[in-house]
Amino acid sequence: MTRLLAVSGPEDPAIVEAAALLRAGGLVAFPTETVYGLGADGLNPAAVAKIYAAKGRPATNPVILHVADAAGAQALVSRWPAEARALVERFWPGPLTLVLPASDRVPSIVRAGGPSVALRCPAHPVALALIRATGRPLAAPSANRSQHLSPTLAQHVASSLGGAVDLILDGGPTEAGLESTILDLSGVRPRILRPGPIGPADIEALIGPVDLWEGVVKAGDRQAAPGMAERHYAPRARLELVAPGSGLREASGSVAYVALGALPALPAGVRGILLPLDAEAVGTRLYALLHELDDAGFERIFMERPPEDEAWLAVRDRLRRASAKERP
Ligand code: TXA
Ligand code: MG
């Protein structure tokens, strides 16, 4: 049975209980500033295996280790380059995940057999308190079934993962709403594997030019990062990106239309939803909105294509994947 406990802050006794469960090899979902994570003791391969089983996640897709500070990260890598030091000083705790060469303390299952490990220090008081109370790095992917929408509310975790989790810590809605930026520092040139709340310009200002990885990994390959499956972060409803006001004439069934900035005139029966023309606000709200529209049984969602500028990079990335036709 999954239990759900509200946590008020880092001193909440629920955290002590959650840490004991984690040390005993259990699964605990917890809030971060991006999305909810499905946590396990990151140094216990059997516990990490439960994450893969609960999510239905392919063994080829590695998981992030969550640490409480830079020292916690350094203990898990074989190299700590100057770029890592600079980025961590500026952005940790925060939504930046760094991929670095792993030390041999990191279990193979965490790395999906590869040579590197992804490390992140979340900016959420409950997540940080939980890592400290457990005394281990916490392996934690987003707390959803593989390829489904990420959870921004404890309730999303409960409905996606149901009985597979021992405990869900409910810390209310998450703030950023989109997953962390993933930056690979293990190769010759720094490379963004997944755009997120910290943009390329923020990173480049500190360490110079970075590449942006926009490829797609085919099913069965060891994945360089998650969103690399073309369809990912997807609602059950069919999502289509459109120019403002278009695409609606041929629509039938129960249809929602998500506008950015201004709501156009809509055909009768189409439910209109207005979001601000503000990338950060849309990022915060996007997954929760898609969850709501799914729960309300909409069959089709039309959403206006966001602007092309860099501020919208992460939102565009998630929307492109959520609207891709085929699951790999
Ligand atoms: O905001 C976030 O990052 C959230 C919260 C819970 O921290 N976590 C999250 O985890 O989004 P997940 O597993 O859903 O996505 C992280 C992705 C993995 O899918 C994986 O492909 C990539 O990070 N990743 C993990 N380890 C990696 C590695 N060693 N090299 C390259 N990519 C890696
Ligand atoms: Mg995920």
Task: Describe what this molecule looks like in 3D.
This protein is α/β, with parallel strands linked by helices. The chain folds into 2 domains: 3-212, DHBP synthase; 238-322, no CATH class. The chain is 29% helix and 19% strand. The chain is built from 10 helices and 15 strands. The chain has helices spanning 13-23, 45-55, 70-74, 82-91, 108-111, 125-134, 154-161, 200-207, 279-295, 313-322, and strands at residues 3-6, 28-30, 37-41, 64-66, 96-101, 116-120, 138-139, 167-170, 181-184, 191-194, 211-212, 238-242, 255-260, 271-275, 300-304. The chain has an 11-stranded mixed beta sheet, with helices on both faces. A 4-stranded parallel beta sheet has the order 12-15-13-14, with helices on one face. Helix 8 links the parallel strand 10 (191-194) and strand 11. It is globular and about 60 Å long. The two termini are 32 Å apart. Residues 217-221 have low confidence and may be disordered. It binds threonylcarbamoyladenylate and magnesium ion. Residues 141-142, 150, 226 line the site of magnesium ion.
